[in-house]
Amino acid sequence: MISIRNVSKHYGSFQVLADCRAEVEKGEVIVVCGPSGSGKSTLIKCVNGLEPFQDGEIVVNGISVGDPKTDLSKLRAQVGMVFQNFELFPHMSITDNLAIAQIKVLGRSREEAVGRGLKLLERVGLSAQAEKFPGQLSGGQQQRVAIARALSMDPICMLFDEPTSALDPEMVKEVLDVMVGLAEEGMTMMVVTHEMGFARRVANRVIFMDQGRIVEDAAKEAFFGTPRSERAQQFLSKILQH
Amino acid sequence: MNDFDWSSIPGALPFLWDGMKTTLEITVIAVVVGIVWGTLLAIMRMSSFKPLSWFAAGYVNLFRSIPLVMVLLWFFLIVPALLESLFNTPRSSDTRLSSAMVAFALFEAAYYSEIIRAGIQSVSKGQISAALALGMSYAQAMRLVVLPQAFRNMVPLLLTQGIILFQDTSLVYVSSLADFFGAAYKVGDRDGRLVELLLFAGAVYFAICFSASLLVKRFQKRVVT
Fold it and tell me: How do strand A188-192 and strand A14-24 relate by DSSP bridges?
């Protein structure tokens, strides 16, 4: 489904990504972790072309992201993305947030788009908030709406960029619950997160990055059992201590 | 003080009102065209396509570095000649109003574009990313997501610039066009009551601009809260 082949990216002389390689099969859940500045968010943003990269190739569902001939908008419409800061559109009601891209990008009728949006809103448990504006919702609620908004486009896979990092601790669970539900339904997901509990529960594989490199790409059991690299061991012991 | 004689004002009110209509006409056209053209300039300036961004930067810097009076004078002299050669309009036709509108619109666009650019930059980059990630084109992301938020943040500044523009329209006196100020001047000159008429005109400008800025302030409070 997602194939990352020898991808490198640099700003001037600063190497952000170095020869990254990874494969994500249909239905797989891949957790990407690593210390801050390790390039994990950049990598996931390269997958839908929000970040350009200089070398290598990323192929999503048979389409090359870096190819200048690729219609990136069309590709992005099929790849859902959830951001750290939710990025709901603050000037639109929740209903419009859910409907706008369906109408403007997929060409659905307003009626159909709102219907689909409300159905997904119900799924994330927020039907009562349909007429409100993003500013009136808690962070956890906003992030659940953001997930519903991404799902409203009927994506073939979902990218999550630290979806719980900006949340108060008590709201993390409600967002993770929605993501676990998605994973169990077989959605292909690439998730940048520090939530190791989530990784243990639903991830197929864990990718560990450090200084722009993919240091470890292992099945969940192997990764949490005995990570091969020293960096990953250090990272895990730090993150699991508390 | 006892020498003031206000008696020529009541009879001149219809003429003064015509002048005010001209003033408002120029203001409204310049604000509307200035905002539309200014928005395009702001987007061009932020474009990654260098020639576009150079053009917009050059335009803005040029107009911001030239006194408004000179721009007005040029347009009074150039636009009529241009229209004449393009459309064969008879020399006698009065193009002073239209050239004033064009001059103000082009001049104000330079100022509006800077306000609008700041407004666009005040919208977080994540908003564009989110719109693009949903499959929107860059133009859709701008039109549906960024600009509505930018304009909401900018409304007070845009209105304030409109009030300044309203005052600046009095500069059309260089073409002896009878805007409100021009009309007041003409009446005063005719009746030998220039001081009274200019005081009256000043009071009217003050009343309109001051109440307009009060409204803007009130609106600003509502936007912020």
Answer: unpaired
User: Which of A89, A102, A103, A152 to mutate against chain B (most B CBs within 10 Å)?
Assistant: A89
Contacts of A149 in chain B (CB under 8 A): 134
Distance (Å) from the alpha carbon of B218 to chain A's nearest alpha carbon:
20
Mean pLDDT, residues B9-35 taken together: 91
**Residue owning tokens 């790409």:** A217
Q: Is A13 on the interface with B (CB under 8 A)?
A: no
Give the model confidence (pLDDT) of B142-183 as tens digits. 999 999 999 888 888 999 999 999 999 999 888 878 899 999
The tokens for A80 are: 């859902």
Long-range contacts (CB closer than 8 Å, 24 or more residues apart) made by A227-235: A232/A208, A235/A33, A235/A34, A235/A35, A235/A208, A235/A210
CB contact under 8 A, B134 and A149: yes
Query: The tokens of A147 are what?
Result: 């997930």
Phi and psi at residue A216, to the nearest 5°: -145, 135
CATH code for the part of the protein at B9-224 = 1.10.3720.10
CA angle A95/A49/B128 to nearest 5° reads 40
Angle between the N-to-C axes of helices A94-104 and A139-151, in degrees from 0 to 180, rounded to the nearest 10: 20
Q: Output the six-digit token pair for A6.
A: 């020898």
pTM over 0.95: no
**Does B225 score more than 80 pLDDT?**
no
**For B62-92, what is each residue's pLDDT tens digit?**
999 999 999 898 888 876 777 777 877 666 6
Domain ranges of chain B: 9-224
R_g of chain B, CA atoms, integer Å:
21
Residues of A (157-216) whose Cβ lies below 8 Å from B = none
Kindly list the residues from chain B whose CB atom is less than 8 angstroms away from the CB atom of residue A153: 134-135
DSSP 3-state of A80: strand
Give residue A238's pLDDT band: very low, low, confident or very high (50, 70, 90).
confident
Taking the C-alpha atoms of residue A40 and residue A84, their distance in angstroms, rounded to an integer, is 13
Under 8 Å between Cβ of B58 and B102: no
Cross-sheet strand order for the sheet of A205-210: A79-82, A157-161, A188-192, A29-33, A205-210, A213-219
Could you give the 3-state DSSP secondary structure of residue B209? helix
Alpha carbons A192 and A198: distance in angstroms, whole number: 11
